[in-house]
Amino acid sequence: MLELVDLDKRLDEDVHDRVFPELEIRLGECQRAARAANVPVVVVFEGWDAAGKGTIINRLTQALDPRGFRVHPISAPNEDERLHPWMGRFWKKLPPAGALAIFDRSWYGRVLTERLNEGLSKRRWREAYDEIQQFERQLADAGTVIVKFWLHISRKEQRKRFKRLEKTAATAWKVGKDEWAQSRHYDRWLAAAEEMLARTSTAYAPWTVVEATDARFRRVKVFEVLTQAIQTEIDRRAAAPPVVLKPMDVPEPSPTDEQTILDRLDLTLSLSREEYEKQLDKLQKRLFRLEHEMYVARVPAAIVYEGADAGGKGGNIKRLTAGLDPRGYEVVPVGPPDAPEKAHHFLWRFWRDVPKAGHITIFDRSWYGRVLVERVEGYCSEDEWRRAYREINEFERQLTEFGAVLVKFWLHIDRDEQLRRFEARRDEPAKQWKITDDDWRNREKWRQYNVAVVDMLEKTSTPYAPWTVLEANCKLHARIKALRTVADALEAAL
């Protein structure tokens, strides 16, 4: 592919001076239109050292409203970033709806610099290709415009630029041993770049190879491609039919319906108080030891609690954390998304709370809200919640491939037990804060939620992130089963 690129392309000065001012105006108009249409834009600049990435980014930003973009220069991950899944730092830098993010180098460092300079294992950089494609597809499916540029120059041109930079004290720092190493191993880098372009140029996130020898040609091509990409998405949205959001209908019974996993649960399982106290003490001591071993071994853990209202999530979490060192864990309560969270992909806010190596994060509700409350109440479209099953599985796979222990609990109670607990909360002043009008309203949608829960369990229980269903009519039984499940999972990982 790259061997066919004509690197001698030039643009005459008079042609550039005639067309470029109009391109700057059009880009500014597109930025304002994208803001009005809530279109997020991600622009990626990759390419050879000294190919002109910094120069073109500088010129690009001069045409944009500075209130609507951020430039992210990407270098090697710092110590904290290395303690998290590698894609996490890029999720955190994503723009909200209506804004631009410009990446001076990007997630592609994983399959270029880390592969070639740092000796990343073949298994890791091959996995990275899958994760990159998933990342970009998820963003594009949610309406993000992704524009990726590879700035291409020859080895001869690169060497000439290096020597010119070295002649001036103000720019000599830009050329070091890594830059000259790239020049010496140009063919090796070229092969890796060819593979990267071939494997990750997709309909939703195509690569544009920019012939970067001539600055005027490079500048005009980048502006043309970026403007056209943004305008295409704006036009697509304008022509698309409006998205209809509606609550989930009451499911109609079918003669072919079988018992679901929830129907087959034995909710009579229970534990005596005496046996509970004895097992609780042993499990909490075991978890305390395992928490410290996890820290030493730098193994992260994410523990997810989902369940019916009044299912006992809070009490369960309280017993789990009672025996842990609070410096090694964090409990993240998850409520409805706020305005900044709604302006991003639904997984964005959860990437911010992914546990770092050696630490435990406990999620009191989680990313599964997308396929539960948001589906049932009609807070997202059918396309969005159906797509979320795959996106959640991909998210969880990335966590576990990083080495995280992932434990997921669904706490299930029957409808009679829920009513008893609701009434107890209502009648006891110290617990009235636990019961809200939404709880009573959600109870009227018991059948809809059961259908959503069964779909969730069936579509997202995977070998690397299985669900554990807790029979929670007896809180004591559910707590012991949860603590034992967590302890067994941590021990297995160690």
Q: Can you describe this structure?
A:
The protein is an alpha/beta fold and 494 residues long. The protein has 2 domains: 2-239, P-loop containing nucleotide triphosphate hydrolases (Rossmann fold); 273-493, 3-Layer(aba) Sandwich (Rossmann fold), CATH 3.40.50.300. Helix content is 50%, strand content 12%. It has helices at 13-36, 53-62, 79-82, 88-91, 113-116, 122-141, 155-166, 177-184, 186-200, 215-239, 273-297, 313-322, 339-342, 348-351, 373-377, 382-402, 415-427, 437-443, 446-460, 475-493; strands at 41-47, 69-73, 100-104, 145-152, 207-211, 301-307, 329-333, 360-364, 405-412, 467-471. The strands form 2 sheets. A 5-stranded parallel beta sheet has the order 2-3-1-4-5, with helices on both faces. Strands 7-8-6-9-10 form a 5-stranded parallel beta sheet, sandwiched between helices. It starts with 12 loop residues before the first helix and ends with a helix. The mean pLDDT is 95.
How many domains, as an integer?
Answer: 2
Question: Tally the helices: what do you get?
Answer: 20
Class per helix and strand makeup:
alpha/beta
Biggest β-sheet description: 5 strands, parallel
